[in-house]
């Protein structure tokens, strides 16, 4: 038996993955009887689509819910609320009701983590780690090994030199290549990359980014690329999604987000990048303070405690995503005509 | 701002550097291997100057910084001359070191909890340092602690004096660590990637704060980072390290505009920044060498596109094509002196 690539079903206009109203809250237990004393609203109503063949970048500061979104997307944990549709089929439903089983979903969606050790068995040579999942899926060992060698070559590691090495015998960049090969082994359609180059040195980071671009082309992949590095996300993404305290505050085509950021948080985040020009140093930081705690997020707009444009309405009502045209949307009262903000509609399409 | 924290007025007549490193080498010797972490580093820092040491992980940045404070473990074999504020650091005994650390030189880290004590409040930690070094009363120590928290722009400083480190957010903890380091007005601040773990919007706040404090207090700062952008934001001069040596040194703007040495040139090309979309990234092939043997040639040669046989003849000496800049590469022209 061989694993064949999964054919496209819904056609190019059908998003590969649609997440809607996704929520994940973590109870914080305390006291004598372990009662729930507080709730971390790690992901709090997240909706977005991943289009076929694109790279969707997700940015945001630590704790904003990027990795929790990733774990939900991978179904490494169950969401408290929300729906997931993969190429037109409900994820986790069985085939009779027009769904895709978790087992099949997990074959078609694979993940690469920041920590290059995390998903490799330290006691197995890397070719065995790569061949492991295909064998579980019924591929004959010899064939799985041959495929592992092909994949090692595809990620730039000569099989003759590297196939029998153990994870600790590789550099961080080489281990990350192995992880990418492992993620490719089941011929997935979607690869989720959570900070895949953040632990690498710059010279190695560039090698891995070039590789990711090549593989996407070669295997017709779709990527979700999570990173806190705004420059890397700009480089690799077609569309970008900005998160703040468990919610999506802005999303759109990469040019729109970077050239015409609408949400005050996105603007501040982009302005916080070091300038790379010692002659043009900033003197005032774009924002003060740290992101607040997701245990007790501010009422109304969650950004209002740090937002220079906050007004009364921002504390009263949660802004909804407003369309700015061309698939660009932002959740801010200034982008919503008639919201009651003195600058309402200023940003609208 | 109170006078205790103002710029020290004592200026030595001769411009003797605040830090002078000559031929610093550090090896870590264990039973089965020797690690040549630092291999002949010369560096000067003027009073009130900010030098960034830039390099990839393992290039010897942190070891160099720790050597300046004599903070290396017993397994380290340190040779060369280390002078800070005119004092020979290598020759100091334990008592002298105690006095030296804190009052002449202080250090901040990536992870603030390595510098803060979890069981004492922020106020207690600062006051205790001040009392120990300057023999003032506890009350005076606490007053200084309050001033320092205000100086590092911690909101509600008075209330925060009584906070324990774990009660503060990441950005505030970083500020508290800076306050502790500044408690005794050091002439030299050593900073080992203090903003690397911070989020973008917090990183820029801490960078601008450090820059401002450095100017206000007239401190010399050596700031270790692997991030070119961070160096661009804070450095006066940059020293780029590779395999335990400084391969290029000079003013930050000149280095970022046109690096002399092929390694920083490659690094600059490989660093993703705005406007590179759709372009293939230039990369440096391979990885840095293992430091288990002492490099006897240009350490960058195996990865260098411009290497020639002469590069393997020996370790290239620093060459200076223009005053104030130098690089260890045989292809760099030496200015006609
Ligand atoms: N199992 C858990 N129990 C309790 N809280 C959790 C759990 N997992 C995540 N959280 C909290 O949920 C929030 C979002 O976490 P998440 O890991 O998704 O952040 P992130 O955006 O990936 O951050 P980073 O950039 O630091 O990786 C954080 O406040 C985190 O502390
Ligand atoms: N205590 C130690 N024992 C053995 N080797 C060490 C020790 N500290 C650092 N090294 C080695 O010295 C080299 C330089 O380390 P370091 O200065 O920490 O690098 P960086 O430039 O990343 O700060 C590395 O190869 C590191 O593994
Ligand atoms: S809704 Fe109000 S507080 Fe929120 S980002 Fe917009 S202006 Fe600022
Ligand atoms: S000395 Fe030779 S190998 Fe080394 S950096 Fe210069 S050209 Fe490259
Ligand atoms: Mg994360
Ligand atoms: Mg270090």
Automatic annotation (TrEMBL), chain A:
Reaction(s) catalysed by this chain's protein: glutathione(out) + ATP + H2O = glutathione(in) + ADP + phosphate + H(+)
SUPFAM superfamilies, per database record: P-loop containing nucleoside triphosphate hydrolases
Pfam families the UniProt entry points to: ABC_tran (PF00005), oligo_HPY (PF08352)
Top-level taxonomic group: Bacteria
Localization terms from the record: Cell inner membrane
One of the record's GO molecular function terms: ATP binding
Record EC number: 7.4.2.10
Location of the region described as Disordered in the Swiss-Prot/TrEMBL record: 271-296
EC category: translocase
SMART domains xref list: AAA
Major location category of this protein: membrane
Domain ABC transporter: 17-270
Entry keywords, A to Z: ATP-binding, Cell inner membrane, Cell membrane, Hydrolase, Membrane, Nucleotide-binding, Repeat, Translocase, Transport
Segment forming the signal sequence: none
Subunit structure: The complex is composed of two ATP-binding proteins (GsiA), two transmembrane proteins (GsiC and GsiD) and a solute-binding protein (GsiB).
Family the entry assigns: Belongs to the ABC transporter superfamily. Glutathione importer (TC 3.A.1.5.11) family.
Function: Part of the ABC transporter complex GsiABCD involved in glutathione import. Responsible for energy coupling to the transport system.
Protein name: Glutathione import ATP-binding protein GsiA
Organism: Belnapia mucosa
TrEMBL record, chain B:
Keywords noted in UniProt: ATP-binding, Cell membrane, Membrane, Nucleotide-binding, Transport
PROSITE patterns: ABC_TRANSPORTER_2
Domain ABC transporter: 21-268
Keyword Membrane found: yes
UniProt GO molecular function: ATP binding
Magnesium keyword on record: no
InterPro entries tied to this protein: AAA+_ATPase, ABC_Ni/Peptide_Import, ABC_transporter-like_ATP-bd, Oligopep_ABC_C, P-loop_NTPase
Subcellular location: Cell inner membrane
Primary localization: membrane
Membrane topology: Peripheral membrane protein
Similarity comment: Belongs to the ABC transporter superfamily.
Protein name per the record: ABC transporter ATP-binding protein
């Amino acid at each position: 038996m061989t694993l064949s690539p999964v054919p496209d079903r819904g056609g190019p206009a059908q998003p590969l993955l649609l997440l809607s109203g996704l929520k994940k809250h973590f109870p914080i237990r305390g006291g004598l009887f372990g009662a729930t004393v507080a709730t971390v609203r790690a992901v709090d109503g997240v909706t977005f689509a991943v289009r076929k063949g694109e790279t969707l970048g997700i940015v945001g500061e630590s704790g904003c819910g990027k990795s929790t979104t990733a774990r939900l997307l991978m179904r490494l944990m169950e969401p408290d609320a929300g729906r997931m549709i993969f190429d037109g089929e409900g994820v986790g439903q069985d085939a009779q009701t027009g769904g895709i089983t978790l087992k099949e979903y997990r074959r078609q969606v694979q993940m690469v983590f920041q920590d290059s050790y995390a998903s490799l068995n330290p006691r197995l040579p890397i070719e065995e780690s790569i061949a492991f999942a295909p064998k579980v899926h019924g591929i004959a060992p010899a064939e799985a090994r041959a495929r592992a060698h092909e994949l090692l070559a595809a990620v730039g590691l000569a099989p003759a030199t590297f196939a029998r090495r153990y994870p600790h015998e590789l550099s961080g960049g080489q281990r990350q290549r192995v992880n990418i090969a492992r993620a490719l082994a089941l011929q997935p359609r979607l690869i989720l990359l959570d900070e895949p180059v953040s632990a690498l040195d710059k010279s190695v980071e560039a090698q891995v980014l070039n590789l990711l671009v090549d593989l996407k082309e070669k295997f017709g992949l779709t990527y979700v690329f999570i990173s806190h590095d705004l420059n890397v996300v700009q480089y690799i993404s077609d569309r970008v999604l900005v998160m703040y305290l468990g919610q999506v505050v802005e999303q759109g085509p990469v040019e729109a987000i970077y050239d015409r950021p609408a949400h005050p948080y996105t603007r501040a985040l982009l302005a916080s990048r070091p300038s790379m020009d010692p002659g043009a140093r900033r003197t005032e930081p774009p924002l003060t303070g740290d992101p607040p705690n997701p245990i007790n997020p501010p009422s109304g707009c969650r950004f209002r405690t740090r937002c220079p444009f906050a007004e009364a309405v921002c504390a009263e009502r949660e802004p909804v995503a407003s369309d700015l045209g061309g698939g660009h949307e932002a959740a801010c009262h200034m982008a919503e005509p008639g919201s009651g903000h003195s600058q309402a509609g200023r940003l609208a399409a | 701002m109170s006078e205790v924290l103002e710029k020290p007025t004592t200026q030595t007549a001769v411009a003797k550097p605040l830090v002078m490193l000559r031929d610093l080498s550090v090896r870590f010797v264990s039973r089965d291997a020797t690690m040549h972490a630092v291999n002949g580093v010369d560096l000067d820092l003027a009073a009130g100057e900010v030098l960034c040491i830039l390099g990839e992980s393992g290039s010897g940045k942190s070891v160099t910084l720790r050597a300046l404070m004599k903070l290396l473990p017993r397994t380290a074999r340190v040779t060369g001359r280390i002078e800070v504020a005119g004092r020979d650091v290598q020759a100091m005994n334990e008592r002298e070191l105690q006095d030296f650390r804190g009052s002449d030189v202080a250090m901040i880290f990536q992870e603030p909890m390595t510098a803060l004590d979890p069981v004492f409040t922020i106020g207690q930690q600062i006051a205790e340092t001040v009392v120990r070094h300057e023999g003032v009363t506890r009350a005076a120590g606490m007053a200084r602690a309050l001033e320092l928290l205000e100086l590092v722009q911690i909101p509600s400083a008075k209330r925060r004096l009584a906070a324990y480190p774990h009660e503060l957010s990441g950005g505030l903890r970083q500020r508290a660590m800076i306050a502790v380091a500044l408690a005794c007005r050091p002439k030299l601040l050593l900073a080992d990637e203090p903003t690397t773990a911070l989020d973008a919007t917090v990183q820029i706040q801490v960078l601008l704060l450090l820059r401002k404090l450095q100017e206000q207090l007239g401190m010399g700062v050596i700031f270790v980072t692997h991030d070119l952008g961070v160096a661009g934001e804070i450095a006066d001069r940059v020293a780029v390290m590779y395999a335990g040596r400084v391969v290029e040194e000079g003013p930050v703007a000149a280095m970022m505009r046109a690096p002399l040495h092929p390694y920083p040139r490659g690094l600059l090309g490989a660093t993703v920044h705005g406007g590179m979309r759709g372009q293939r990234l230039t990369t440096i092939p391979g990885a840095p060498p293992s430091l288990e043997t002492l490099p006897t040639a240009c350490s960058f040669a195996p990865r260098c596109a411009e290497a020639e046989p002469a590069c393997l003849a020996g370790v290239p000496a620093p060459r200076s094509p223009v005053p104030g800049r130098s690089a260890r590469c045989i292809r760099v022209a030496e200015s006609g002196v």
